[in-house]
Amino acid sequence: METDTLTLTDMISESLEKSMTYAEYRTLITTLVAENSTTGFDKTEALVNYTQLNDRRMRRWDKTAKVAENLKSEIENLDRKVTWLVISESWCGDAAHIMPIINKVAELSDAIDYKVVLRDENEALMNQFLTNGGKSIPKLIMLDTETKDVLNTFGPRPTVATTMVQDYKAKHGQLTPEFKEDLQRWYNKDKGQSTVEDLVNLLK
Question: Which residues are within 8 A (CB) of 60 and not within 5 positions of it... i.e. 6 or more apart?
């Protein structure tokens, strides 16, 4: 079947068939680090280095990230089965901060099925969920688990960080290395709470 004749439901079904759990995604990244490699079709030294850095970041968030008590009940009481299909790559800095937080939220409810696919291997799906025309990741597609209908999306950044990026671009025209460092500091200070809040709003 040609890609251009696939419906969105077909694309989602195909991607789900080759998706992995978050635990499998983490194992994949750890393996790639040991092999001095990266996900994606572009295996540059820079992206390999980002993958190594992101593995350390994710390991830290996997251990330390917490969901605020006042938000836990809203997640635990979810009565609709949803699938969170997240498009990512190991070299993506935003993904390293966000993917572990998504996992912390998903772990609180049996109604949330968290699946991961790689962007470069799922181009047709990615093209359906562009951000301002770009293939920005991570991108979470929230699906009704039964019907596979798209209910909502989240990403590539939490709302607060998105505003920071938009304001900086409007003022300076592009993101500088200095701003990207500031953004990393913001993620560290925020400790994933903005992402948790956005995800809870997604479920409402």
Answer: none
CA 148 to chain centroid, in Å, comes to 19
pLDDT digits (tens, 9 = 90+) for 133-156: 999 999 999 999 999 999 999 999
* Pairing verdict, β 139-144 and 82-88: antiparallel
pLDDT tens, position by position, 85-126: 999 999 999 999 999 999 999 999 999 999 999 999 999 999
Summary count for the chain: helices (H), strands (E): 9, 4
Among the listed residues 121, 113, 64, the one whose alpha carbon sits nearest the alpha carbon of residue 90? 121
The two tokens of residue 199 are 């995800």
Number of Cβ within 10 Å of residue 140's Cβ equals 25
Number of structural domains found in the chain: 1
Domain of residue 139: give its range. 3-203
pTM for this entry: 0.94
- CATH number for the domain harbouring residue 9: 3.40.30.10
Spatial distance between the Cα atoms of 174 and 95, rounded to a whole number of angstroms: 20
User: With the CA atoms of 130, 66, 40 and 152 taken in that order, what torsion angle do they form, in degrees rounded to the nearest 10?
Assistant: -20
